[in-house]
Amino acid sequence: MVHKSNRPTVHDMRAMKARGQKISMLYVTAPEEAAAADAAGIHMLSIESRFFSPEMRAAAGNCFVQVGLPFGPYGGLATAEDYLRAAFKFTAMGGDCFYCAAALDIQKALCDNHMPVVAHVGLIPSYITFTGWRAVGKTATEARAVWDHVKRLEAIGCFGAELEVVPDRLGEMISRNTPMIMLGMGAGPGADAQYLFAEDVLGCTDGHKPRHAKTYRNFAAEYARLQGERISAFREFIADVNSGAYPQPQHNVAMDDAEFNAFKADLGL
C-alpha cells in the first residue's frame, strides 16, 4: 500500500507558481530552525548536504526541502556520477530537490535521471571570481546573458533556479517567462519565491548583511546575553568549589556507618 505524504511535491510547487501563489523559502542549518520553519508554515527550505540528515528531514516536517550538492572544490563532487550518487543518497533521506551549480552537462545528467534540479543564475557565489560581489544584469548585455542562461537550464529540464541579486524588472520578466520555479534572492517581488537565510531573518550575526536581507529578531543580542549568563554560572561554580559550598550533602552518595566501619576494619585502619 502506498501511503500519501502531506509533504509537497514538485507537482505541488509548480501548481503554486501556476496560480501565482508566492513561495516563502529559508536557508537553515539546524534542526531547531527547520522545525520552527515548519511550525511557522514556510513552504521551502534550503539545507546544505553537510547539514542534511534524517533528523533534519524529520524536523523540516511538511516543508519542501532543497538539498545543496556542494560544487567541486567546496564539497568533493566532481563528475556527473559523483553528483548522481549524492542525489540518490539524499533522495533516500528525504530530499525533495537538489541545488546544483556545476556545469550544464552535470545538471543535465541529474535531470535525465529524474532528479529535480535547482540551478543558479545571476550572481553565483561559486563563480564569484568572474563577476565580483555585485548585482548582475544591470546592462542590456548582462540581462540577456542571464536570460539565455535560464533558457539553457529550461532546455535540459531543470525544475528551478536560484535567481540572485538581479534587477527587479529582470527578475519579474524571467519569472513570468519560464516554467521553472525562480527562487529570488534580491531579485525583486516578481520572483516566484522569496528566499532569505535564517541567520539574517533572526539577526544571528553582526557581520555584513546583504541589501536584500531583512531582520525580524535580534538573536545576536540574545546569544550575547546567554553567553554572559554562561560565564556567570561558571564563575559561581568555581567560587562554590573554592569555598566548599559545592558539593552539598544532597549531591553526595551516602554509605551506611556499619558498612564504612567494616570497610576500614578490612583495611586495618
TrEMBL record:
InterPro entries noted in UniProt: Pantoate_hydroxy_MeTrfase, Pyrv/PenolPyrv_kinase-like_dom, Pyrv_kinase-like_dom_sf
Pfam families: Pantoate_transf
SUPFAM superfamilies with a match to the protein in the record: Phosphoenolpyruvate/pyruvate domain (SSF51621)
UniProt-listed Enzyme Commission number(s): 2.1.2.11
UniProt record, GO biological process: pantothenate biosynthetic process
Keyword set, alphabetical order: Pantothenate biosynthesis, Transferase
EC category name: transferase
One Gene Ontology molecular-function label: magnesium ion binding
Assembly notes: Homodecamer; pentamer of dimers.
Family affiliation: Belongs to the PanB family.
Protein name: 3-methyl-2-oxobutanoate hydroxymethyltransferase
